[in-house]
UniProtKB/TrEMBL annotation:
Secreted keyword on record: no
Cofactor(s) it depends on: Ca(2+)
Involved pathway(s): Protein modification; protein glycosylation
Compositionally skewed regions (Low complexity) per UniProt: 839-851
Catalytic activity: N(4)-(alpha-D-Man-(1->2)-alpha-D-Man-(1->2)-alpha-D-Man-(1->3)-[alpha-D-Man-(1->2)-alpha-D-Man-(1->3)-[alpha-D-Man-(1->2)-alpha-D-Man-(1->6)]-alpha-D-Man-(1->6)]-beta-D-Man-(1->4)-beta-D-GlcNAc-(1->4)-beta-D-GlcNAc)-L-asparaginyl-[protein] (N-glucan mannose isomer 9A1,2,3B1,2,3) + 4 H2O = N(4)-(alpha-D-Man-(1->3)-[alpha-D-Man-(1->3)-[alpha-D-Man-(1->6)]-alpha-D-Man-(1->6)]-beta-D-Man-(1->4)-beta-D-GlcNAc-(1->4)-beta-D-GlcNAc)-L-asparaginyl-[protein] (N-glucan mannose isomer 5A1,2) + 4 beta-D-mannose; N(4)-(alpha-D-Man-(1->2)-alpha-D-Man-(1->2)-alpha-D-Man-(1->3)-[alpha-D-Man-(1->3)-[alpha-D-Man-(1->2)-alpha-D-Man-(1->6)]-alpha-D-Man-(1->6)]-beta-D-Man-(1->4)-beta-D-GlcNAc-(1->4)-beta-D-GlcNAc)-L-asparaginyl-[protein] (N-glucan mannose isomer 8A1,2,3B1,3) + 3 H2O = N(4)-(alpha-D-Man-(1->3)-[alpha-D-Man-(1->3)-[alpha-D-Man-(1->6)]-alpha-D-Man-(1->6)]-beta-D-Man-(1->4)-beta-D-GlcNAc-(1->4)-beta-D-GlcNAc)-L-asparaginyl-[protein] (N-glucan mannose isomer 5A1,2) + 3 beta-D-mannose
GO biological process: carbohydrate metabolic process; endoplasmic reticulum mannose trimming; ERAD pathway; response to unfolded protein
Protein's UniProt name: alpha-1,2-Mannosidase
Family recorded in the similarity comment: Belongs to the glycosyl hydrolase 47 family.
Chief location: endoplasmic reticulum
Keywords annotated in UniProt: Calcium, Endoplasmic reticulum, Glycoprotein, Glycosidase, Hydrolase, Membrane, Metal-binding, Signal, Transmembrane, Transmembrane helix, Unfolded protein response
General function of this protein: Involved in endoplasmic reticulum-associated degradation (ERAD). Accelerates the glycoprotein ERAD by proteasomes, by catalyzing mannose trimming from Man8GlcNAc2 to Man7GlcNAc2 in the N-glycans. May also participate in mannose trimming from all glycoproteins and not just misfolded ones targeted to ERAD. May have alpha 1,2-mannosidase activity.
Active site: 147, 294, 388, 406
Residue ranges crossing the lipid bilayer per the database entry: 20-43
Length: 934
């Protein structure tokens, strides 16, 4: 590793070459010889094993890239379950996520520099030729400015950077004449109209052909953008300017950054998630380091590294100080309000923040990086992947996982910083999980639900741009890479830009830059570039000693005490504030505390209680703030509970050749028949019923006997179909949506309801698949005839045995059937088979209704019998032990189901619905109040 002598961060004068010359190997600079001092702790990994893992990464990359090139190219992305390209407009819209797709062979461009890092120079040369030959940047398609910048502009620039490096070496790319750079410049000019705002913040979207605001453009009416969207341009734009000499790009990106800096909340030094691009007002005033903000911070620090401009470091350090003061609650990183930074804005974290430990390594703040990374790793160990969001007590909040690379990125940087082989083992686990759970015959599929192991037909381009780079580099030695990685900086999409750009075409670097600072606050440099002696006081077990106290933080998590520990100690001596989850309406002490906080309890005529807060009635401003937080926690708690009470989806896993369990489809459950969450899975070959709609006695009972019958949705009740296939001897049924093109990727799942009568006679399990997932099975039958599936609540782990397993009998079903109880749940249900899925959504978010409280007070309603919504969960004992929350939630939902035994025609039996409606009103009232206050 290079020491980057003369690095600005350690206090020398203005850099002659690169300000920090590590960066691609980030921590190397600050933590020079950590790897060489390693002597104890986790067992060192032999060179042989590291090479083996590196080769495994190469093989996985070939599987992902090869399938993309064979089955999807020139489309933007591969759909790994249906093994074809995702072409925008030809698939049901997935909303914003599709804005990354510009019909410009996104995955190929995003993969360019990965090919070089992985030593696939020949393939790189071919790929560059294909980009030059096939890619059109002038499509009539509206794309995200942010995504196009980081993935396409970044991809082209990364490709160019390594193309010129290879050319200089004299073997490959000898024909190359800056063609990728010319494309990048063309794209840069296409993005510039987005900056035509008075603020200088870019519009979030642009039409590649028509720009913005012309009628043909179909975009330009947006008023808001996310902070990361406006603040993640400087590396690519500055590189483009410096490579080409066209200064306009760097100027525009700087202007946007200057504006964001001006708009930071001055007392907290934090920024919100969303900003109005015309007025500069914060639209969302919550602030964290994950979704919506993440790479804004990343680019401030990296802009300093790449461009050597002190003002970026100063800004970063100011924000970092605020992050560590308010958002960092080690090992957690929790969003807060920018105006009230002591107030948590959420009780959950998103997966994007997993990049932050890596950035902390670059900053040189290793301890919290180790802590947060360890916490994240434990969440991964629990769920195999990092769910998109998880709660402060580490339960799943959003269950999907689109193969994000952020955790691998942080793992790589922490390994570079500490040399601790523990991080190699972490990387090994990531590789194993990807192969075990995400690998499908045609690539790697995103996880739709980490709990069930079901897949989404999606392989995002960042998986190739980032994941394979970081994993390969983790196990590589210097000599395994054909160039010096330390001469480059990673963009947020892991594209490589050469550090020599810092001294090229510098003319614009000072122009138009607003900075409040003339002098740097040198004390910040202590943080920025810590002395290795301090970080590793000759202690090779340094990282381990930080991880040790966190060893069981996830398993032993208990909600109480995790949130805001810092705040509680901050008021040492004082009684900790009342938490919403502890509140009991019958506890007189609690009522007294409520009063002090300005919260009053109103008994409504219908038997419910309502909580209303008037800050002005609080005993003190601290009590008022506690009250505000209490109300907010109540609201969070309620919406969290709603989510937890939703019945999780089920899984249909294809286990026969050549799938061997690799394809897992998300299925909706039924309110009748065998409950797969309580019983073992059902496994069997599939057969189509005749008639296919299953609405009358089957004419092909011999074909479905002992098998899992496929039935088409429509014409009659779900229960009727189930009875008909059961009578024909089927051991299970899969209803396939007749709505062509429907998919669980785009439509919310629902439960199949009974027919309003007694359905105890239905003993077999029934699952619902949308048409796209259903056609994966139908296609498989066409191709392989014999297709065996497993119906379960969670996909079975794949192992080599699955490939050789005999077809099991369905004996488990017959044993279980007698014990089967129909448990109508309090979920939204699809009562009528012909109803459209959208009308009855299992996952739909509550709609807001008009504010109930004209006093601008926050109000919260709950059923009186359940005035402590978490009462059933509150099992934290005094000595800090917790019982298993998941089990309790399960128990709770079972109790609720039992007390709600009837599901009847045309009526959603959901007392919870009315409660929810009240809560929604209250949320809005609460938000209004907050707005007024601010
Ligand atoms: C990538 O496209 C980039 O890393 C971006 O900054 C946010 N995260 C995605 C992958 O998760």
């Amino acid at each position: 590793m290079s020491e980057a002598g003369g690095g600005r961060g350690c206090g020398s004068s203005v850099p002659q070459r690169a300000p920090w010359s590590l960066v691609a190997a980030t921590a190397a600079f600050c933590l020079v010889s950590a790897t060489s001092v390693w002597t104890a702790g986790a067992a060192p990994m032999s060179r042989e094993e590291r090479q083996k893992l590196g080769n495994q990464v190469l093989e996985m990359f070939d599987h992902a890239y090869g399938n993309y090139m064979e089955h999807a190219y020139p489309a933007d992305e591969l759909m790994p379950l249906t093994c074809r390209g995702r072409v925008r407009g030809q698939e049901p819209s997935r909303g914003d996520v599709d804005d990354a797709l510009g019909k410009f062979s996104l995955t190929l461009i995003d993969s360019l520099d990965t090919l070089v890092v992985l030593n696939k120079t020949k393939e790189f040369e071919d790929a560059v030729r294909k980009v030059l030959r096939d890619v059109n940047l002038d499509n009539d398609v509206v794309v995200s400015v942010f995504e196009t910048n980081i993935r396409v502009l970044g991809g082209l620039l990364g490709g160019h950077s390594l193309a010129i490096m290879l050319k200089e070496k004299g073997e490959y790319m000898q024909w190359y004449n800056d063609e990728l750079l010319q494309m990048a410049k063309q794209l840069g000019y296409k993005l510039l109209p987005a900056f035509n705002t008075t603020s200088g913040l870019p519009y979030p979207r642009i039409n590649l052909k028509f720009g913005i605001r012309k009628p043909e453009a179909r975009t330009g009416t947006e008023t808001d953008t996310c902070t990361a969207c406006a603040g993640t341009l400087i590396l690519e734009f500055a590189a483009l300017s410096r490579f080409t000499g066209a200064t306009i790009f760097e100027e525009y990106a700087r202007k946007a950054l200057d504006f964001l800096w001006e708009k930071r909340q001055r007392s907290s030094n934090l920024v919100g998630v969303t900003i109005n691009i015309h007025t500069g007002d914060w639209v969302r005033k919550d602030s964290g380091v994950g979704a919506g903000i993440d790479s804004y911070y990343e680019y401030l620090l990296k802009a300093y590294v790449l461009l050597g401009d002190d003002s970026f470091l100063e800004r970063f350090n100011t924000h970092y100080d605020a992050i560590m003061r308010y958002i960092s609650q080690p090992p957690l990183l929790l969003d807060v309000h920018i105006h009230k930074p002591m107030l948590n804005a959420r009780t959950w974290m998103d997966a994007l923040l997993a990049f932050f430990p890596g950035l902390q390594v670059l900053k040189g703040d290793i301890r919290p990086a180790i802590e947060t990374h360890e916490m994240l790793y434990q969440v991964i160990k629990k769920h195999n992947f990092l769910p998109e969001a998880f709660t402060t007590d580490f339960r799943v909040h959003w269950a999907q996982h689109p193969l994000r690379p952020e955790f691998a990125e942080s793992t790589y940087f922490l390994y570079k910083a500490t040399g601790d082989p523990y991080y190699l083992e972490v990387g090994k686990t990531l590789i194993e999980n990807l192969n075990k759970y995400a690998r499908v015959p045609c690539g790697f599929a995103a996880m739709k639900d980490v709990r069930t192991g079901s897949h989404e037909d999606r392989m995002d381009s960042f998986f190739l741009a980032e994941m394979f780079k970081y994993l390969y580099l983790l196990f590589a030695d210097k000599e395994d890479i054909i160039f010096d990685i330390e001469d480059y900086i990673f963009t947020t999409e892991a594209h490589l830009l050469p550090l020599w750009l810092s001294t090229t075409n510098q003319s614009i670097s000072k122009k138009n830059t607003t900075s409040d600072y003339t002098e740097l606050d040198d004390s910040n440099f202590d943080w920025t570039c810590p002395n290795t002696q301090i970080l590793f006081p000759n202690d090779p077990l340094y990282a381990q000693s930080i991880r040790e106290p966190l060893k069981n933080v996830v398993d032993k998590s208990c909600p109480r005490g995790i949130i805001r520990v810092r705040e509680e100690s901050f008021r040492s001596g004082a009684k900790p504030p009342l938490r919403a989850r502890d509140f009991m309406a019958t506890n007189s002490e609690h009522l007294e505390i409520l009063k002090k906080m300005g919260v009053s309890l109103i008994h409504l005529k219908d038997g419910r209680v309502q909580l209303v807060q008037h800050a002005i009635q609080a005993a003190s401003s601290i009590d008022a703030e506690d009250g505000l937080r209490f109300m907010q926690e109540m609201i969070e708690l309620s919406s969290q509970q709603q989510k937890e009470q939703q019945l999780p989806p089920r899984a249909v896993q294809i286990v026969s050749h050549p799938f061997f369990g690799r394809v897992v489809l998300t299925a909706g459950p039924a309110q009748f028949g065998l409950d797969l969450s309580k019983h073992k899975e059902t496994r069997g070959f599939v057969a189509s019923s005749k008639p296919y709609n299953g609405c009358s006695e089957l004419t092909n009972p011999e074909a479905v006997m002992g098998k899992i019958a496929l039935i088409q949705r429509g014409q009659c009740m779900f229960a009727e179909k189930a009875r008909n296939i059961q009578n024909a001897g089927a051991i299970g049924g899969i209803v396939i949506d007749d709505n062509e093109g429907s998919s669980s990727d785009t439509a919310p799942l629902f439960q199949m309801a009974g027919d309003g009568k007694d359905t105890d006679d239905i003993k077999i399990p029934m699952l619902f698949l949308f048409s796209k997932e259903g056609s994966i099975i139908l296609d498989a039958i066409r191709e392989y005839e014999e297709v065996e599936v497993l119906l379960s609540d969670k996909a079975k782990d794949r192992d080599p045995d699955m490939e050789s397993e005999e077809q099991p009998s369905s004996e488990n079903d017959s044993q279980d059937q007698s014990a089967e109880q129909i448990t109508p749940s309090s979920q939204e249900v699809d009562l009528v088979d012909q109803e459209s899925p959208e009308e009855s959504s299992l996952n739909s978010e509550p709609e807001s209704s008009s504010p109930a409280d004209t006093d601008n007070a926050a109000s919260v309603s709950a059923s009186e019998q359940n005035s402590n919504p978490m009462e059933n969960h509150e099992t934290t004992s005094l000595d800090g032990e917790c019982t298993d929350l998941d089990n309790q939630l399960q128990e709770q939902s079972e109790t609720e189901e039992d007390s709600n035994p009837n599901v009847s025609w045309g009526k959603k039996v959901q007392p919870i619905d009315s409660i929810l409606a009240d809560w929604n009103e209250d949320i809005e009232a609460f938000e209004m109040m907050e707005k007024d206050e601010l």
